[in-house]
Amino acid sequence: MTNPYNKTTHGRIGGQGWLAMALVCVAFLLPVSAKAQHYPTTLTAEERFFGLSTVWKEISSTFAAPESHTTPDPDSLYKAFVPKVLLAINDYAYYRLLQQFAASFRDANTYVEMPEHLRDSLVIPPIEISEVRGRFYVTNIDRSLAGKLPIGSEILRINGFETSLFLQNEILPYLSASTAHGRMAMALAHLLEGWVNTGVMINARAPDGSNLNERVKRVPPGRLQWMRTPLSTEPIAFERGNRDIAVITLNSFSAETMRAIQTNRMLGRAQSVILDLRNCRHEESLENIVRAALLFADLNRLILPGFAVRQTPYAFSSPQPGELQHAGQHREVSRYRFSPPDTLRSLHRYRTAEPINLPLVILVGPYTGNGAEHFLMMLRQSPFRAVLVGERTAGAIGGSIKTPLPGGGVLSVNARYDIYPDDMWITHGFVPDIPTPADIKSILNSDDLPMLKALEYLSRSEER
């Protein structure tokens, strides 16, 4: 596959060069899983150029990231993408290019969302896939497909390409994430995605060693019957674990979810709490996150994050002795305007209930990001308050500004990065105290390994 950043696209190209480049771009953009005629083509050349220019302009002027976060030069990237967006064979291919442009900045909050009519035409078959030491296995599947691809089957090829190669060329370049493990988690979720009513060819090896060759059709989902219960996507859910352990799945730090926790009767009888944040990834109100931190930790003060935002590259200033006195003389200033972390001491207005002082285990993973990571950072201010179990978190911070794009898409640009005095998680995410990467045994047994490890840890703690 042609490298999209090949330097030959930066310079002047003659007539034959344009033809050659067009053929290369068509080969690059044509999805392996579906033919071009399935996709609408409505955007004009002017709209395509304007859309790319909007993405370039907003990222160039607004995108905020630590100085250590290496990013490509927006101007060079823009020049390389201009001919590609003009030659895109349809609207879907065009928007994929915009997604690739935004994803080049490796930030979870800087991304392009496709128009609704394109999103609604994309289908992911009900198959969940996980990576284990560079190999890819079915970890959950709808019962209608379970006889074709049993749980534990190793995915070897997608549409004729080795799975790792298919990921590298067709999936990973288009996904915005701050960490490599966060990007891979997203890639595996989108691995089989494609246009509605098309098929995806899967070559796999079953747990018994037999070869499987299945064409799975992408149809709109009906009532799904998963072989194993998937992670909840509800804002909040309660269940009882072994003995007197309260299990709270928290996917939102809204005021409603905080009230639900405070009024839940199960907590009154619980001896310990498991808080599942593995699907908690959204930008949230900092005030609600403060309330959540004060609910789970007995703090008498709380350090809130500082932040940095982009500012105009040059600022006018009064001349100093010995400097030129010309009107309008300017000097270069910092790329960012910083607001340092501050300490919140008056906590009574945010503390709406007595803190839950029970032993606390928090389940985390690559979809634990944004507001959830602020929550973890605040809990860390109470030493040894919680034990983290699972996989590294997403490493997503900041807040995005949204801009409409031609055809109904939306650009989100991270316009703020957050700063705590003693840690930054943008480049690595939070490392769990008890790591639980997927393994073949847990996959074949359909085990929720992080949950089992959390229950095991709390059981040992009670024995001590």
Approximate helicity band: 25-40%
Return the structural class.
alpha+beta
* Main sheet overview: 6 strands, mixed
Counting DSSP E segments of at least 2 residues, the number of strands comes to 23
Q: What multimeric state do the chains show? A: single chain
From the spread of the alpha carbons, the general shape counts as globular
Number of helices: 14
The CATH architecture of the largest domain can be given as: Alpha-Beta Complex
From the alpha carbons, calculate the radius of gyration and give it in angstroms. Answer: 25 Å
3D architecture notes:
The protein is of the alpha+beta class and 464 residues long. The protein folds into 3 domains: 7-107, no CATH class; 122-217, Roll (Pdz3 Domain); 236-313 and 332-463, 2-enoyl-CoA Hydratase, Chain A, domain 1 (Alpha-Beta Complex), CATH 3.90.226.10. Helix content is 30%, strand content 23%. The protein has helices at 15-29, 45-62, 74-87, 91-103, 116-119, 143-146, 163-171, 180-189, 255-263, 266-269, 286-296, 371-379, 440-444, 449-463; strands at residues 111-113, 122-123, 127-132, 135-141, 154-158, 161-162, 194-195, 199-205, 211-217, 236-240, 245-250, 272-276, 302-304, 306-310, 314-316, 330-332, 336-339, 342-344, 360-364, 386-390, 399-404, 410-419, 434-435. The strands form 7 sheets. A 6-stranded mixed sheet has the order 10-11-12-19-20-23, with helices on both faces. Strands 1, 14, 17, 21 and 22 form a 5-stranded antiparallel sheet that branches. A hairpin with a 4-residue loop joins strand 10 and strand 11 (245-250). Helix 3 (74-87) packs antiparallel against helix 4 (91-103) and helix 11 packs parallel to helix 12. The longest helix is centred in the first third of the chain and has 18 residues, at 45-62. It is globular. It starts with 14 loop residues before the first helix and ends with a helix. The relative contact order is 0.14.
